[in-house]
Amino acid sequence: MTSSQRRTPLSPGTAQLDLLATGESAIDATFATAYRIQLDDTSWVEHVPGWLSGGQRLLEALLAGAGWEQRERWMVNRMVVEPRLTAEYQDVADAPEAELRTAAAILSRHYGVPYDGLWLNLYRDHRDSTGWHGDWSTCRRDECVVPVISLGATRRFLLKPRTGGRSVTLTPAAGDLVVMGGRCQRDWRHCVPKQTAPAGVRVSVNFSSRLQATKPSTT
Ligand SMILES: O=C(O)CCC(=O)C(=O)O
Ligand SMILES: [Fe+2]
Fold first, then answer.
1. Domains of the chain by range and CATH?
2. What confidence score (pLDDT) does residue 18 get?
3. Edge to edge, what strands does the sheet with 130-133 contain?
4. Which of 136, 146, 192, 202 to mutate to test the pocket of ligand 1 (most atoms within 8 A of CB)?
5. pTM, entire model
6. Does the keyword field hold Oxidoreductase (predicted)?
7. What is the dihedral of CA 71, 62, 101, 146, to 10 degrees?
8. What pLDDT shows up at residue 95?
């Protein structure tokens, strides 16, 4: 980590946890544990350990009830099967668990972005992954704020500059929130790499906003 990537706590450690009960889980609406890594002058990532506590029931409900699909995509000149499953809800009202709508509302208020959709990734084990990418389809603006909740197994979440260079490693555990902001989707890439160490199932909840997915008008 370079000096420009200091980890800065965002709230005093003495902040009271304001836990909002949502089903059997609870969300820290004060973001008391949040710290920010300034990736460069215009890009940042925040990690909020333990943002959602008691998420085991939510994980199990999503595994059983989300609309999981196996997607394929063109890579150069061949179709490849994505190494994970995905469930997408373009309208958060259709999301299967009320906790996800509560989370969207709390994130919208905190980051000032109306999160109205989400997609879920299911990493069945340590062999599943998401390759290096920027969230282009959901971020058409120069600056976007993209929150991701982790449920289940702890996996590594890496970021590296688009032009190359050293990567920054986060290890979000169950209930942790990772939020990418500023020009992160433009100037940085992120991934969840495969690993050799065995890992159980992980679900990530990625929030989207029609506002961020729309280019600002130039007139
Ligand atoms: O699973 C994660 O933590 C991130 C997934 C991701 O970056 C994506 O689906 O765009
Ligand atoms: Fe992404």
1. 3-208 (2.60.120.590)
2. 45
3. 130-133, 188-192, 157-161, 168-170
4. 192
5. 0.91
6. yes
7. -50
8. 96
> Which pLDDT value is given to residue 185?
98
Positions of the chain with pLDDT under 70: 1-23, 219
Q: For residue 5, what pLDDT is reported?
A: 64
Task: Report the pLDDT value the prediction gives residue 106, as an integer from 0 to 100.
Answer: 98
Instruction: Give the tokens for residue 140.
Output: 């058409």
> What is the pLDDT, as a whole number, of residue 16?
36
Distance (Å, rounded) from C-alpha 155 to C-alpha 42? Answer: 26
CA atoms within a 13 Å half-sphere pointing along the CA-CB vector of 11: 17
CA of 189 to the centre of ligand 2 (A): 8
**155: its two tokens:** 């996996």
Mutate to test the pocket of ligand 1, among 128, 148, 178, 185 (most ligand atoms within 8 A of CB): 148
